[in-house]
User: Fold these one by one.
Assistant:
Number 1:
Amino acid sequence: MNHLATEHELDTPALDVAGIRAQFPILERQVHGRPLIYFDNAATSQTPLAVIDTFRDYYSRYNANIHRGLHTLADEATAAYEATRETVRSFLNAADRREIVFTRGTTEAINLVANSWGRANLEAGDEVLVSLLEHHSNIVPWQLLASQLGIKVKVIPVDERGVLDLDAYRALFTERTRLVAVNHVSNAFGTVNPVGEMATIAHEHGALILVDGAQATPHQTVDVRAIDADFYAFSGHKVYGPTGAGALYGKAALLEAMPPWQGGGEMIKSVSFEVPTTFADVPHKFEAGTPAIAEVIALGVALEWVRGVGLDAIGAWEARLLERATAAVSRIDGLRILGTAPHKAGVLSFVVDGAHSQDIALLIDQLGVAIRTGNHCAQPLLAHFGVTATCRASFAAYNTLEEVDAFADALERVIGMVR
Ligand code: PLP
């Protein structure tokens, strides 16, 4: 194609998209007789062969329960599981491996903080600030605490672009504000939030900040120390890894002071009916029961894979995909993009006059294109914008400009059919 290079193209570090695609067998499949175009990456990204092979390798060679075994297989499984802790530590630039707790994903990580830190530190009248951009998983755990402990959940508003209003944020703080819970990147609109600045403001008011990084980790380098996050949560399945494994980062001093949340094996030092039961040191204090061993090991492989490709290159490539998609769909009559923040990750949310989002998603699937429709677990945000659902296309490293063009053509066709 003969065109002048855009700013993004000039800045884009090289990404071998064809070479990346070759590592994702699922991208070879057909859907309804057409090549799959997978634009539902914000819900779950696909996994490369290196991650898929980890499962075969684990179950073929060293499947064993971890930590207490005195045999070779248990040692190997433990070493691989704990090696992922180091991988996550360096992926997030945490100071210490003890600050990484494995969870099933972001939801469980946030619930851990709410139930352990929250119950130990919050009382009636205390305040937690959440943003209007939050996924339900960073709203409902705080609402549950509100009904159980009598705390207040206050909402940081957004402007018409889906950008958080930082003046309003500052004004929400009172002497009862204890925690800010905010996402790094919005799954519904793609807004990238200034979490570092928000952390500074929270700390100035003596409050902690929990950052939901589910949508940031796949697209940009995350440095929990540069952000000065007190807690940071993410899910493996959104960052080219498996479902069932994610992590919570927490500052060591906070984790050490927090009580266990779930009780059981693995999280104790000694159990007795006569004297008080004692608990393992962090992070194992928060990892009760047999964890998702193979999934955690595969999560480590996924993060190494992402690092190998390069998050700067991935982010820049996705910015190009987003730019192309935004320009293409903007030409469609009656289509309105929700979420027009100047700083966005690869998420394109839209509604179309006279066409139901669900109909669009169902029909475009017939053309091989997978997008998501619905409220994206962000009902308060969508209600604020006067809609109950949007269509959402979201991009990953393996998506191509040709796919974006094919998606835009398919979308126009489908809209023509339903209007
Ligand atoms: N937070 C955000 C911003 C998300 O996008 C998601 C998933 O869509 C979650 C939290 C929940 O993640 P999980 O379902 O992996 O726990």
Note: The longest strand covers residues 177-183.
Number 2:
Amino acid sequence: MEQSNDHMMKNEPFEEEYIFEKLKEFKSQDLTYSSGRILGSMCSEPHPLSKKVHMDFLESNLGDPGLFEGTKAIEEEVIKMIASFLSLDRPYGNVVTGGSEANIMAMRSARNLYKEKNGIKNQTAESFEVILPKSAHFSFKKASDMLSFKLIEIDLDDEYRMDVESVKESINKNTIAIVGVAGTTELGIIDPIEELSKIAIDNDIYLHVDAAFGGFSIPFLNDIGYNLPNFDFSNEGVSSITIDPHKMGLTVIPAGCIVYRKKNYLDLISVDSPYLTVKKQSTIVGTRSGATSAATWAMLKYMGREGYSELANGCMINTNFLADALFKEGFNLITKPQLNIVSFNHPKIETNDLVKSIEDKSWKVSITSYPRAIRIVVMPHIKHTHLMEFMRDLREIKKEFDV
Ligand code: 0PR
């Protein structure tokens, strides 16, 4: 069984048994969701059905959909099903690799729409501007670099939402898009999309909503009476929405979705693909997985709105339990959780020191940048018992710090 490094360097064939053994060793270094120790991730353990379906479609390539017409039909149904809970009857869009790709596609559409409207043929790079909240995900920094537009970062109000007055003041003739977030990465806050929509209509500007995280919770929580703000296409100014099945949708990675109100937004970013079975392609990725579309389709059918309501509600119950427990122990909650994210710090312990002590007890948390705090994303793999253990450890840590 044991084969030498020499052998490896020559890249001679190995026995299957050795390969599995080696990979098992690598995998043993990974954390598992089921341990409950991953507290700072927006991904979770995929549902077994999603894994099974994914395996059945591994060879399918949506980069050349004429070869995989059945899978292409699945992708279209996924976009339709998702759009139905975003209040849009005739959607256009794709299942993509995640929120980053979806956001980059939306920004490309917005820029090209602006160019079309203004008769701009060449890049006038430095003059394009996108208005977005300070809380927006870093994928917009990538988009800005790739597409050459300036980011106009808007301050947040007292509730960490994008400040609407500042948005109005920042609009000028170079504005190509406004971005609002429904479920911010650090705090899970929902921006005032209804107001942004009015501003977008009044100024004839493209409005993109990044609901990568919140999109798979907000509609289902509202079904059961949560009364969260409306972020969807029923706001006439919303041009596109990012929404990720691989976050709260329980599907395998990589599954994100971009949903557009108009076909033109997709056409504006299509390039000729002469030697494929279709003559145009709009996604950033060329050869792309059909398996994630199939797995997402299966999960949407299997869970239904009710299943996703139950899932999101379970996470919210755990979120509120954690927030209350932290508050009782004297921690500062940055904000009352709107979705399943709790961010906190301690008035007498430096956040970095607190993180170190938490990590010494084998928990993985993440740190927010504004304001600086510890962030816990209460995903479906985090159970009540894990949170009880976590609180026990926090009480010990407090003792160590003498507070
Ligand atoms: N938009 C929002 C609002 C997001 O929160 C994220 C990711 C994205 C877009 C980009 O999505 P993709 O990562 O699918 O391209 N937010 C998390 C983050 O960056 C993703 C994450 C997932 C982080 C798992 C950690 C982790 O373990 O914080």
Note: The longest helix spans residues 291-328.
Number 3:
Amino acid sequence: MRFFIDTANLNEIREINNLGILDGVTTNPSLMAKEGITGKNNIFAHYKAICQIVEEGDISAEVLATDYVGMVREGEELADIDENIVVKVPMTKDGIRAIHHFTNNGIRTNCTLIFSAAQALIAAKAGASYVSPFVGRLDDISTDGLDLIQKINDIFLNYDYDTEILAASLRHPMHVLRCAEIGAHVVTAPAKVFLDLFNHPLTDAGLKKFIEDGQKLNLR
Ligand code: G3P
């Protein structure tokens, strides 16, 4: 399973990338705005900086337009920034049309704001490289977000779609582990979620004891 970090913060991307466990980055307009990035030149330069940190990973860059023509124009510009850019497109009729266009023109896509298996099926049929079901936001409205990951996985296994499941809006380590059990291809989460995966109190206690006993060995 691949790990993508869900942030536009360069320091967080560097931190997880330096651990050697990062396979890509997902951003969205809210995450870019959180970093205070404004203006087309600055936004494009920021995406380029992300691509330079994660040299071989896919970087999702989201279109802001909501109409087909605007999405195609923006998506083609975003794809020109770097070969690792994946154009992120919202799950709408215009978005699906744009994904179909991008697929036919060799531009990879991530269909975002997926909240049902039906939407994931439509995106796969249009040729999306990734579908992004939002687990946490479904949990927020008392609907089992992980159940959606399971359903999409079951459906995709019945056919030979190239579309990969990119489980998004993950909020804690158990979301990641359950996605791994189900077989999601990719998870995207904030840095804290990945850092929390490292933790176990028995590791801390065990290491403390090894250090104490190691000092008795008098290696010098
Ligand atoms: O990748 C989608 C993600 O950014 C949404 O996460 O926590 O805002 O629901 P969240």
Note: The mean pLDDT is 97.
Number 4:
Amino acid sequence: MKPTPFLAALILTACATADTPAPSAVTHAEDSHSHARPAEVRVTHVALDLTPDFEARTLTGTARLALERAAGADSVILDVEGLTISSITTPAGDALDFGIGADDPILGQALTVRLPDAADTIIVAYRTAPDAAALQWLDPAQTAGGRMPFLFTQGQAILTRTWVPTQDSPGIRQTYEAIIRVPSGMQAVMSAELLTPDGVSSEDGRTAYRFRLDQPIPPYLIALAAGNLEFREIGPRSGVWAEPGIVDAAADEFMEVEAMIDAAERLYGPYRWGRYDILVLPPSFPFGGMENPRLTFATPTILAGDRSLVSLVAHELAHSWSGNLVTNAVWNDFWLNEGFTSYIEARIMEELRGRDYADMLRQLGRQDLEETISDIGVNAPDTHLQLDLAGRNPDDGMTSVAYDKGAAFLEAIEAEVGRERLDTFLREYFDEFAFQPMTSEQFVQYMNQELFAGDDAAAARVQAERWIYGPGLPDNAQVVRSAAFERVDSQLVAFRAGTPPARLETADWSTHEWLRFLRALPDTISNAQLTALDDTFGFTGSGNSEIMFAWLRIAIRNRYQPAMPALEEFLSSQGRRKFIAPLYQDLAATEWGAPVAREIYGRVRSTYHPITSNTVDQILDWEPSGR
Ligand code: BES
Ligand code: ZN
């Protein structure tokens, strides 16, 4: 059920003054991706005590859950998937009855625990499955150093339930603490405050690290990594964790992060999470970045050596406001996380590098959006900002629509009211709804009330309903112009007219200008022309992952043989789904490429994260048993 405007207004008044509202004050939007019934009993705090076994690929231990109960409720429903549960008890040690429901392929299982009168704490003793989707266990050979195994988690969207038995819905915020017992010599890190920087060693060859996060978060943000990690300080409240061999390069790449935090605070109010650190993961990390609180998880493929791909850090940092502070209540409203964040990402980069730079980012995003809309259909429901993901994997919502149509909507609002008013409004929005879930309906109601107070004509001009509940790109979308890209486009015209690559004016181009150039090259290019481009600009040897990716797509499209070893290397040396999936897709679309794709995939599939291999399995029609 969606809150009606009337209900939404009630929610607004109920929460208006509270800083962190009592859980009971929060009304829960119906989440089709969770079994939980938070109105009856809800989890407010999770305390983990977990020991990883790198041989067996399991986490074993306990989760102590603090519960808040409504009168009359006699059982709590948790989300789980593939957990082996050995017991559920009260803190006094009394065993509790529990039952595990049928395994839904998307939702996993409901774990129902009978609660004795007045019980407000339960302890679940359990073990994770070796193929738990949130966990990737890496052999030493899959790390940069090659010395130690590595483990990391990825909770978003609904994978936390594969390693933590809790109510796994973004509308059910929980604080958490943890003890993680790793083999001595290994470092554990989490999206929380590290209370024991040196760890506590014990006789059994393990070191225990303790963590705590006092701010309530949606469970998809509970995150853990363990491996051979070192820390380098960057600024007073920022630093980087990475394997020893790359930690200095990472610290240098992210040198601007403190300036990013300052810029974001000037725009949208205080950073409320204490520290902001970045963890650089091994190359199989399936995403570019993940905004785990206090500790962004990032792919090493953004270490370009020239700080040219750090807008990704601005993006993950921006989630400290949009997403982590004010959170989509359900995955249908994913755009409230990603659209706001993409808008803020560009604003932060504009503060750091200026308008021209930010406009290049906006233009590339707009191009992604136009391609996505034309791919899925200009009238397709999946081009609405608010999605209908019931019965589907919420990852289906991870398209350019949530990101770039969402950002375009905020740009349209900005054009109507001006930057100053929008900035003030957003600062108030983050303040008002800090640590609370948000729905599209609630946002529109709050915007109409605060930003358009009384000005119905202005509210009508932004067409919120069309943007959120309608398809495609509404006609008040701002035209994005980039002066830098206009210069690139003139060189493209010259190239098309026969100017040899060496005579193109590319001297001061940055990564983004190159991306514009590569994306706009003609679909069909002769091998002679590709060779000339490659000889002049060295694309096949590029150390920049985004440029390499754009070039490899062109190489596949035109069967440019000299790039094939680089393609194979790119597909086997990192597992970022955004790069991996389109390349297999491009290969599979050609007669010569389909067998090449299957041959490479057969060799490297096991090194990919399940998030990436599940997508490629579908692209290649791969039988998971292996063929
Ligand atoms: N929160 C997302 C990643 C995500 C979304 C993971 C949905 C699982 C489900 C993160 O903030 C993100 O958007 N990452 C992007 C990079 C960004 C610069 C667009 C990515 O990983 O490509
Ligand atoms: Zn994001």
Note: Residues 355-376 form the longest helix (22 residues).
